[in-house]
Each structure stands twice: as C-alpha cells, then as structure tokens.
Amino acid sequence: MSRGNNKGNKEALLAAAKTCLLEKGFDRTSVRDIATTAGVSTAAIGYHYGSREKLMFQALFAVLDEWGEKSGRALVPADEPGADPVARYVRRWDEQIAQALEHPDMFLASLELFMQARRQPDLLPQLADGMRQGRSGTAATMLSIPEDEVSDEAARTLGMVQMALLSGVVVQALADPEHAPTGAEVLAGIRALAGLGT
C-alpha cells in the first residue's frame, strides 16, 4: 500500500467517524460502521488510530471545532459602522439559534464530548483547554477585538457567561423548536436578571 493511500485512508476514517458520530452517536457507532463508511478494512482503524475509541475521540474534537467555527461565524459582526450594539446583539442571538436548529447534530456532539470526557478522565485536559479557548474567542467576538487582546478577566466573565447562556438557550431551542427563544427574548431575560442585582 502506498504512503498516499495510507494518508487517504486515515483522512477517510476520520471523515467516516465524524459522519457516524453525527448520525448514530458515540456509543452506537461500531468499528464496522466506520470502516464501511470509509470504504476501508476494519484493520485500518487500528493501524492509523490504535483503537475505535481514539478515532472517535478525534472525531468528537473535530466536530466540536466545526461547531465552534459555525457558531463563531454567526457571531462575527457585520460591517456596519455605527450599528446599534443592542440590535447587533439580538441579531447575533437569532443567527446562533438558527445555526443550532439547522445543525442540531453538531451541538449534540459537543454535549456527547462532555459526557465521554466524564467517563474518560484523560480527555478532560483537552476538553478544559477547548473551553478556555472558547471563552476567549467568545469574548473577543463580543468585544470586536482580536483574541490575543482579550484579558483573562474578560474571558472568565463575559466569555464564560455568553457561552453558558448559549448552551442553555440552544438546549431549550432543540427541545422545543416550535417555541425556540428569540434574540429579543434572550436580551429581555438578561436585562431582567441584571435588574435583580440592583
């Protein structure tokens, strides 16, 4: 087998694992499912990744990265000089909720990664690092500044709260899509919570 085919098989296996993960979930995806989807032998999984679990964990992190990119694109502010920041925030929420409803499998895979990391403690450092990056990236987007300019305080406050709100709102939207929250409702809720502290 040529080196090019080996590389192609490795990439095909990762793509197949992501497909199976999104369609069947982590626990219901078998070695045969992945190999059949990739069009390679089951032995190729051990050769390239060592085990089904290691391949599936890579697939989970890859899906999480893709979800982060998709939701991050929804947060990128439009090039609207002088745009009302409140209206922009509401629009960002509407766009993110729409992204989650359009790609529910990607968000659910991120929840599955958390569940698997609780069962496999060696995954927790990677998950924690991803969360730290997510908080920093979210804060950067909300503040419209480069990520390397985000302070630790902004990441641990603004980034953390926005990520927590997003996860909770998306769960509610996916549980009851016909009555999914709107950006305006999210903003009204945030204002109501802030009012409790005054």
TrEMBL record:
UniProt DNA-binding residue ranges: 30-49
Domain HTH tetR-type: 7-67
One Pfam family matching this protein: TetR_C_31
Keywords: DNA-binding, Transcription, Transcription regulation
InterPro entries (alphabetical): Homeodomain-like_sf, HTH-type_TetR-like_transc_reg, HTH_TetR, Tet_transcr_reg_TetR-rel_C_sf, TetR_C_31
Presence of the UniProt keyword Translocase in the record: no
PROSITE patterns: HTH_TETR_2
A GO MF label: transcription cis-regulatory region binding
Domain of life from the UniProt record: Bacteria
Keyword Transcription regulation attributed: yes
Protein name: TetR family transcriptional regulator
Originating species: Actinocatenispora rupis
